[in-house]
Design goal:
Two copies of one chain form a homodimer. Chain A is mainly alpha-helical and about 110 residues long. Helices cover about 70% and strands about 5% of the residues of chain A. The structure holds a DNA duplex (30 and 30 nucleotides).
DNA sequence: GTAAAACTTGACATCCGTGTAAGGGTCAAG
DNA sequence: CTTGACCCTTACACGGATGTCAAGTTTTAC
């Protein structure tokens, strides 16, 4: 699977995929000519990266947290705390969004053209 | 109410309050010396702006949408569509975040230090 | 063997809300 | 008055993921 295929499969641009690799979030093997090749599993991985990015984790945080998923990670108090804190961030973000949704829904109701 | 008071009341920095005004999201009257004065209602307004910003609306969009709240707005099909589309965006964002939360919660469970 | 499509690295640009510094003016209390 | 806290405008910087351009190499198809 070359970068264009992975891009098509995930919706991430080749530019982004190279960036993920730069940041240590994604690995690839190289052909003799230097082109990237990806395993099937990369598709899932990229989807996960995108999901975490859109949840507001930055790539450094993702790098701290992602290895857990595939490798048997080192179970440190630090990592547990980090994960918990990110989880809480996401949860409070969801709460905020719920409030915003309520506001927007109210507006939609009010300003619908009858 | 001067800018420092409004800042304290909302948590938005004076810098941000001036920016909101620049973008047409917030109005103020000026003292003879040129300093901004805000009505009580500005507190609610700023909270709303913050909420919409954190929901991913940019200031141009907010400007399109915010006037509805105070003024009896022009009820155009265009505005209704705009609001609906933003609402849908927020809702799908909430869905995505739910999925992300599930992933993170799974990790937390798995990597908790017993 | 040749052309087109896809890939490589590197560098610079963009968005956009916010921080921050400079240099100066305003306002209220003593 | 004067002082100190607060405010004004202008301007530049940043973060961080992504876009884009350039110049060159690899791969694929014919």
């Amino acid at each position: 699977m070359r970068i264009g295929d992975l891009s098509a499969a995930t919706g991430a641009s080749p530019r982004s995929l190279r960036y993920y690799e730069d940041q240590g979030l994604l690995t690839s093997s190289r052909s003799s000519g230097g082109q990237r090749h990806y395993a099937e599993a990369a598709v899932e991985r990229v989807r996960l990266i995108q999901s975490l990015l859109s949840a507001g984790l930055n790539s450094a945080t993702i790098q701290d947290v992602l290895p857990c998923i595939n490798n048997e990670a080192i179970r440190t108090p630090w990592l547990a705390a980090r994960l918990t804190s990110e989880l809480q961030r996401v949860e409070s973000q969801i709460e905020d969004l719920h409030r915003t949704r309520t506001v927007l829904a109210g507006l939609v109701k009010q300003y619908r053209v009858e």
